Amino acid sequence: MEWLFNWKGWLILGFVLLALELIIPGVFIMWWGLSAILLAVLVWLLPPLSVGIQISGFALLAIVFSLIWWKYQHSKDKQNDKFTSLNSREQSMIGMQGVIVEILENGIARGKFGDTTWRVIGSELHLGDKVQVQRVDGITLYVTKVI
Questions:
Q1: What is the pLDDT of residues 11-35, one digit of tens each?
Q2: Which of these, 35, 37, 50, 52, is most buried using a 10 Å CB contact count?
Q3: Which residues, other chains included, contact 79 with Cβ-Cβ below 8 Å and sequence gap of 6+?
Q4: What is the Cα–Cα distance from 30 to 37, expressed in whole angstroms?
Q5: Pair 10, 36: CB distance under 8 Å
Q6: pTM assigned to the model
Q7: Quick count: other Cβ atoms within 10 Å of Cβ 28?
């Protein structure tokens, strides 16, 4: 087993893990592979490292690299969610046109957009008016008449 705990063994393990990342995508295997390659460099520079220190170093590097990647990707995903309308039906409504089908009180009406009616707010709305969505606030669409 001594063949594994030298710089060549760690280098081979690193490249095997990187190759596995190509076959089994998941991102974390790549960081484990890079950890093994970095450990190979450390063992090459400091040959008398014990087996326990090598294994602990590999585990620590793999965890640190994985956590750094997770934190980076998680923050990137949160930023992207702010600017997407994917799975956000309300935001995808902006610019859509519909027809007023019911007049309620205080400038509030019901408008039909596609196969759904929505609560709409606009000025001087009448039955049958064609309207366009300008903004969305919860379940309320703010509309303007289309001429």
A1: 999 999 999 998 987 777 899 999 9
A2: 35
A3: none
A4: 11
A5: yes
A6: 0.53
A7: 14
Burial of 141 (0-12, 13-18, 19+ CB in 10 A): buried
SS (H, E, C) 117-145: EEEEECCCCCCCCEEEEEEEECCEEEEEE
Question: In the chain, where does DSSP find H-type helix?
Answer: 7-23, 28-45, 51-82, 89-92
What is d(CA 98, CA 109) in angstroms, rounded to the nearest whole number? Answer: 12
* Residue keyed to tokens 């957009």: 113
Helix (H) or strand (E) holding 94: none
Which two structure tokens, joined as six digits, stand for 4? Answer: 């594994």
> Within a 10 A sphere around the Cβ of 90, how many other Cβ atoms?
16
Tokens 């039906």 sit at which residue?
89
- Cα separation, 71 vs 57, whole angstroms: 21
